[in-house]
Design goal:
Layout: H1 14-42, E1 49-52, E2 61-62, E3 68-72, E4 81-87, E5 93-98, E6 102-107, E7 113-118, E8 122-127, E9 132-138, E10 144-149, E11 155-160, E12 165-169, E13 174-179, E14 186-192, E15 198-204, E16 206-211, E17 217-221, E18 226-228, E19 234-237, E20 240-243, E21 249-252, E22 259-267, E23 273-280, H2 287-290, E24 295-299, E25 305-309, E26 316-321, E27 327-332, E28 336-341, H3 346-368
């Protein structure tokens, strides 16, 4: 037989012959995959969209269809502007409402009314979606700093930067009641409980809680922002969860000491999550340090941090959840507006991470056996 006709023999078992390449390649694939998973679990979430705006924006709200973000306008003398509407997905401005400069805005629960607090001290109400101005409420002697509709849209609460808090009847355009604050207070935030029984106002100097019906001051709390739970039994502040009836602390979820003033607070539509807008102490010092300013989504029931959003350089001064609860918009002191997904939270991510790792290790062991 010709030497070239001899059969080639190899007694190496197939698994050993090809195992080194197969398992080695799989291990490399796993390493890359685990890196991606690690970033998915522990890395910062990525904004859906982001765009820059002129001026400092401390108030923003989604339109009822979740498609647009309404932001108070900053016009010039030749082109006065009250409200601008931006496409949530690409940040393009699609609509404007002309009028005097506006400091804060909010939609009624049914989306049919949009209220804006003017820099001239006048509260304006537009019918939506046509954008027709239907009311002007004049009682404030300074710029309107915060406004809030009642849950049924029949009442409107407003505060002046350096004046008292007013409660309005929306249908009759009449002033129902005034809630008095200390003369040296600067009000930045107001809220009306869903059941209509309580009114709060907060800012530099603290937060005050009144009986909405008779105007009696019930309590003073050392917090600048507050929101109510869906059942009106709890107050959510930037640091604590408090009982409305006696002010006792239910949960303490205060931020790190590096954070300073709280500017805004938002609660998800389902009442399960909240987030507060904060600026760091020493704001404006060092670009690299300023990048490390997260926005946390907390679970209201126990204060657990569910999601971390990073991107704003100098803290956040305004935020809002979309009506469907899938997005949250933030306005930073860096002049940027960002739209974030409200996604799978930390506990779920860690569980999925563990399951994927266990499955891949099981496959590697089976291939190596």
């Amino acid at each position: 037989m010709n030497e070239f006709s001899h059969p080639i023999t190899d007694n190496t078992p197939p698994k050993q012959r090809y195992g080194c390449w197969t398992i080695g390649g799989f291990i490399i694939l796993i390493a890359l995959n685990l890196g991606v998973l690690f970033w998915w679990v522990f890395g910062p979430d990525i904004a859906v969209s982001a765009w820059s705006v002129e001026g400092s924006i401390s108030s923003l709200t989604f339109t009822p269809d979740n498609q647009l973000l309404a932001i108070p306008g900053r016009g010039i003398s030749q082109h006065p502007l009250s409200v601008s509407f931006y496409n949530v997905q690409n940040g393009m401005k699609v609509r404007e409402l002309a009028g005097p400069d506006t400091a804060c805005i909010t939609f009624s629960s049914d989306g049919r009314l949009l209220a804006g607090g003017g820099m001239d001290g006048i509260v304006r109400i537009w019918s939506m979606p046509e954008g027709q101005l239907i009311a002007e409420l004049e009682r404030h002697t300074s710029a309107v700093s915060s406004i809030a509709f009642s849950s049924n849209g029949q009442l409107l609460l407003s505060s002046g930067m350096k004046s008292d808090v007013h409660l309005w009847d929306v249908s009759t355009r009449t002033l129902l009641r005034t809630y008095h604050t200390p003369a040296d207070s600067i009000i930045t935030h107001v809220a009306l409980s869903p059941d209509g029984r309580f009114v709060t106002a907060g800012g530099i100097g603290g937060m005050w809680l009144w009986n909405a019906q008779d105007g009696r001051l019930l309590r003073e709390v050392p917090s600048s922002v507050v929101a109510f739970s869906a059942d009106s039994q709890l107050m959510i502040t930037g640091d604590e969860l408090l009982r409305v009836d006696d002010g006792s602390v239910v949960q303490d979820y205060r931020h790190s000491k590096q954070y300073g003033q709280r500017f805004d607070i938002a609660i998800s539509p389902d009442g399960q999550l909240f987030s507060s807008a904060v600026r760091p102490i020493g704001s404006g010092v060092g670009l690299l340090w300023k990048e490390q300013v997260p926005i946390y989504l907390h679970r209201i029931s126990d204060g657990t941090r569910m999601q971390s959003l990073r991107g704003h350089r100098d803290g956040v001064i305004g935020l809002a959840f979309s009506p469907d609860g899938r997005l949250v918009a933030t306005a930073g002191n860096d002049g940027m507006v960002r739209i974030w997904p409200v996604g799978i939270f930390w506990p779920q991510r860690l569980i999925i991470f563990g399951l994927v790792v266990a499955l891949q290790l099981f496959i590697v062991r089976r291939m190596a056996s």
